[in-house]
Design brief:
single chain; alpha/beta; five-stranded parallel sheet; binds thymidine-5'-phosphate
């Protein structure tokens, strides 16, 4: 594969969306036409439908196992139809959430068997692992309140509350500890958005140059 695959992870309200927007502006201003932005769930026709079911449909309730399998289905489709073809070209794919979100949210958060989630992820990703994963980290009592005050607590996962976010944060940190060569953790509580952006760019440059 000629391209590079970068994933962004973190609990809700941690500023990931702001950083993605700053990266998109940077890519546009610097004419980095080979930088492609995508997300899980989403990024394919099926993914858009699944995102609606998983996050926005307030009446449909699915079991944690079915929820996990739907995230994995989104990932399998996204890898085959989007990520692999793009990596065969000389592209830098920047993906909003990926395998680690399922381990953190459905495994550490909902309590599903983590080894099984790893196996399902392995099947879905067909050997394609991120070259770099940037984990935005902050105490959930700060980030969750921030998401709520911005009116971003409407989706089903965010509606689970603060305790759920604490379990997920602990999960992300444990996952990152197990694969330090893939992860870069950015402590967002101590920095403003432009400092975080500079940090993110430095990490990306390390793997693309
Ligand atoms: P976001 O795209 O705005 O970050 O929101 C996606 C939500 O979906 C977020 O609350 C985390 C959740 N999610 C999971 O629970 N499991 C997953 O595998 C993925 C990719 C996302």
């Amino acid at each position: 594969m000629k391209g590079k695959f970068i994933t962004l992870e973190g609990i809700d309200g941690v500023g990931k969306t702001t950083q993605l927007e700053l990266l998109k502006i940077f890519a546009h201003e610097k004419s980095k036409d080979n930088w492609i932005f995508t997300r899980n769930p989403g990024g394919t026709e099926l993914g858009i439908e699944l995102r609606e079911i998983l996050l926005n449909n307030q009446t449909l309730r699915v079991t944690p196992l079915a929820e996990t399998l739907l995230y994995i289905a989104d990932r399998a489709e996204h890898i085959s139809k989007f990520v692999i073809p793009a990596l065969e070209e000389d592209t830098i794919i920047i993906c909003d959430r990926f395998i680690d979100s399922t381990v953190a949210y459905q495994g550490y958060g909902r309590g599903l068997n983590i080894a099984n989630i790893h196996k399902l992820n392995e099947i879905a990703i067909q050997g394609i692992k991120p070259d770099l994963t940037i984990l935005f980290d902050a105490d959930p009592s700060i980030s969750f309140q921030r998401a709520k005050s911005r009116g971003q607590s409407g989706d089903k996962i965010e509606a689970e509350g603060l305790e759920f976010q604490k379990k997920i944060r602990a999960g992300f940190l444990e996952i990152a500890q197990l694969e330090p060569e893939r992860f870069c953790i950015i402590d967002v509580a101590k920095k403003n958005p432009s400092e975080i952006h500079e940090n993110v760019l430095k990490e990306i440059e390390k793997i693309i140059t």
